[in-house]
């Protein structure tokens, strides 16, 4: 548990009550919802519901109609909703359990670059989460070397367009399924080899907790570009995340560590939930959004205490 981070830092977390931070997001909430959390909804439903709750949004490319992306982005910019980041349709250099095609890493990186171009109007100054993917035969060396080379190119490409690349270590259960990097120490080693100022880190509370590495968020320093939040109970499959505050992760301690790094950016709730009897995706989505907001707000209040 983090100690001594409370009183001295608490005053700059959030003002009392429902007031918002004075920095990056002005009158908008730091709490964002990743669109995968409300997977059954459309982009338009997501935006309407998140705005109603005073929340920002992490976009998912899969929620857009490929034939109407310019029109949908123009509409989105009129909605005055804070955008934290975009989850691309292809977000790993090598294949992952969820996105197997294309298999060629070069083609996958080319698709990431195309996504950055397609969504450039809303992505300037925002984050583009990504991960290595995996070689399903267990050839970690191949994935590591290929990813180092790929991220040098991707970080350059994104920097020229004002977009930040936020590498995310995944949970240990996804090793050699969707990643070869499952804790922050390994992620920092990768960043050191790539050696590019535009490549930073996504700290996901769920993934770090699963890897017994929650405290490693403190290692991120000024390379922390994005924060994802979900809660954990022993999962029944790969997509069994819990609403913040409804599991076992000490989220207030996690947020204190994040705050101690001077991170003041979005706190993005990202929930996957399918194939279980009480799937969040089969519940009232408006209620799920409200619970997510309450859970993060409660953790922030505890972190400020």
Return Rg in Å. 18 Å
Number of strands: 8
CATH first level: Alpha Beta
**How big a fraction of the residues is strand?**
5-15%
Overall pLDDT score: 92
Look at the structure and name the CATH superfamily.
Answer: Divalent-metal-dependent TIM barrel enzymes
**Widest sheet: strand ordering:** 3-2-1-8-7-6-5-4
Give an overview in words.
The protein is of the alpha/beta class. The chain has a single domain, classed as TIM Barrel (Alpha-Beta Barrel). The protein is 36% helix and 12% strand. An 8-stranded parallel β-sheet has the order 3-2-1-8-7-6-5-4. It is globular and about 45 Å long. The N terminus is likely disordered. Keywords: Isomerase. This is Sugar phosphate isomerase/epimerase family protein.
């Amino acid at each position: 548990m983090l100690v001594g981070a409370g009183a001295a830092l608490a005053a700059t977390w959030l003002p009392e009550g429902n007031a918002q931070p004075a920095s990056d997001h002005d009158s908008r909430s730091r709490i964002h919802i990743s669109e995968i959390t409300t997977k059954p909804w459309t982009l338009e439903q997501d935006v309407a519901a998140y705005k109603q709750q005073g929340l920002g949004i992490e976009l998912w490319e899969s929620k857009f109609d490929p034939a109407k992306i310019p029109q949908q982005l123009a509409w989105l910019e009129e909605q005055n909703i804070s955008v934290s980041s975009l989850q691309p349709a292809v977000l790993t250099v090598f294949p992952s359990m969820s996105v197997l095609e294309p298999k060629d890493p070069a083609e996958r990186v080319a698709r990431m670059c195309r996504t950055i171009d397609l969504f450039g109007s809303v992505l300037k100054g925002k984050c583009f989460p990504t991960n290595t993917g995996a070689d399903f035969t267990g050839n970690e060396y191949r994935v590591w070397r290929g990813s180092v080379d790929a991220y040098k190119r991707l970080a350059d490409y994104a920097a020229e367009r004002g977009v930040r690349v936020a590498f995310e270590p995944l949970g240990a259960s996804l090793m050699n399924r969707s990643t070869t990097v499952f804790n922050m120490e390994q992620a920092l080693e990768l960043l050191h080899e790539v050696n590019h100022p535009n490549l930073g880190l996504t700290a996901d509370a769920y993934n770090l907790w699963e890897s017994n590495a929650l405290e490693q968020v403190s290692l991120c320093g000024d390379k922390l570009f994005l924060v994802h939040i979900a809660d954990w109970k022993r999962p029944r499959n790969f997509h069994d995340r819990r609403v913040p505050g409804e599991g076992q992760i000490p989220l207030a301690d996690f947020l204190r560590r994040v705050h101690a790094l001077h991170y003041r950016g979005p706190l993005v709730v990202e929930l996957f939930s399918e194939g279980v009897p009480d799937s969040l995706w089969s519940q009232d989505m408006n209620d799920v959004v409200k619970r997510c907001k309450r859970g993060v707000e409660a953790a922030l209040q505890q972190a400020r205490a």
